[in-house]
Structures are given as C-alpha cells and as structure tokens.
Amino acid sequence: MPMIPLDHLDPAELFAMVSWTIAPRPIAWVTSVSPAGDHNLAPFSFFTIASTDPLILMIAIEPREDGSVKDTLGNVLSTRQFVVHIAELDRLPEVARSGDPSPPDFDELADLALPTSAATVVRPPVIDGCAAVFECELLTTHRPGLETLVFGRVVAARVAEHLITGCGRVDVAALRPLGRIGNVFTASTLLERPDRPVGTAC
Predict the structure, then answer these.
(1) Are 174 and 199 in contact (CB under 8 A)?
(2) DSSP states of the chain
(3) Residue 116 and residue 129: Cα distance in Å, rounded?
(4) Alpha carbon 186 to its chain's center
(5) Which residues, in sequence order, are bridge partners of residue 140?
(6) Do the Cβ atoms of 80 and 150 come closer than 8 Å?
(7) Residues of the chain with pLDDT under 70
(8) pLDDT by residue (tens digit) across 10-69?
(9) CA 159 – CA 152 distance, rounded (Å)
(10) How many CB atoms are closer than 10 A to CB 61?
(11) What is d(CA 56, CA 122) in angstroms, rounded to the nearest whole number?
(12) What is the rounded distance in angstroms from the CA atom of residue 24 to the CA atom of residue 187?
C-alpha cells in the first residue's frame, strides 16, 4: 500500500492529519478551581493513562490562540488539583459547549446548570451522572513543545454503579464514552474482543 510522507507539513497541517489518524481519542472533561474559588470546566482530547501503579493520568493542554495559558492549566498550576470526568453520549451538548472560548471568570458549570457534588479529596467539584470520575493531584508538568503535559496522580476514583456487573467488571455493552476523531465527536463502542463474545463482562 503506497504511503504519503508527512514530514513536509507545517504544524497546523500536521496537527490536522494526526488528529484524524490517531483516533479515537478519549475525552477528559476537567473541572478545576482558581485560587479565588472560581470554577472552570473544559474538555481535552489529548488525554491518556500515563501509569497504572500508581494511577496517573496525562492531559496535554495547548495555549490560547494568543499564546496565553488556558484557565484549566492556570488553575491546576495554582491549586495543584483537578477532576477528570468520563462523559457518555448523553452529555455531548454540554461537553461541546464547555469547550467554547470564555473569559477566565466564566463559570461553565453554572452556565450549563450541571448538577455537581463535592469531591472526596480535592477542591474542584464533581459533575454528577458521569461514567467515571478521577480526582487528581498534580504530580508534574512538562512542556516538550506547544502543549503543556499535565500529569495528575489519582487520589480517588469511582465508576457509575449502573455500569458495574454482578462480578465487579465494567459492563462494556452499556458504556458509551465520548471521544474525538479529528474535530468530530464520536461515541466509543466495543466492536470485537478476541477472548469472549462482545458484551460479556465476566
């Protein structure tokens, strides 16, 4: 199969090409709090597990178009805490809207009238009704290029009760986490599992 080189592309073109080919990407729906107590909510699709023991999550946060630091990164650097939510298909409108540009003191949680509850360890609030919640404390950051990589150690985690089967596994047939392919949202679903039929969780 013929291949087309990407080395000649400028950063914007390369970003577009990579975002459509390294996919689907999971979405971290992140709440954070400023030192003054202002709430912030934003989605990030450059997101993954960095370690399982201890459990560490990584989010890559790019700067604003003018080069300034985004609110989430500023809050995390100041308070060293954030909460990652895994949202499902039914939260698509809220996830999409929370990614719109907004001033630093704009409260996306209030604007979207999202129900929240207090986290168990950290200050940022938890959005009720998500598939999973990971309360994180900042471990370190690294900026190898345009984006700042944020590594957060998970200090509390939980999964929605309706997604857990009787044997304590995630019901893969019931889970519909949001993701991204390019600049388009997608719902991740299990297509094939070699060791057992799709939908068998135990």
Answers:
(1) no
(2) ------TT--HHHHHHHHHHHS-PEE-EEEEEE-TT--EEEEEESSEEEEEETTEEEEEEEPPPTTSPPPHHHHHHHHH-EEEEEE-BGGGHHHHHHHTS---TT--HHHHTT--EE--SSSSS-EETT-SEEEEEEEEEEE-SSSSEEEEEEEEEEEE-GGGB-TTSSB-TTT--BEEEETTEEEE------TTS-TT---
(3) 9
(4) 14
(5) 151
(6) no
(7) 190-202
(8) 988 998 899 999 989 999 999 999 999 999 999 999 999 999 999 999 999 999 989 999
(9) 18
(10) 24
(11) 15
(12) 9
Kindly list the strands in the beta sheet with 178-181, ordered across the sheet, starting from the edge strand earlier in the chain.
25-26, 178-181, 184-187
At position 117, the amino acid (one-letter code) is S
What type of residue sits at position 84?
A: V
Take residue 93 and report the two structure tokens written for it.
């409108």
pTM of the model as a whole: 0.92
The answer to whether the beta carbons of residues 115 and 129 sit under 8 Å apart is yes
- Long-range pairs, 112-115, Cβ under 8 A, ≥24: 112/41, 114/41
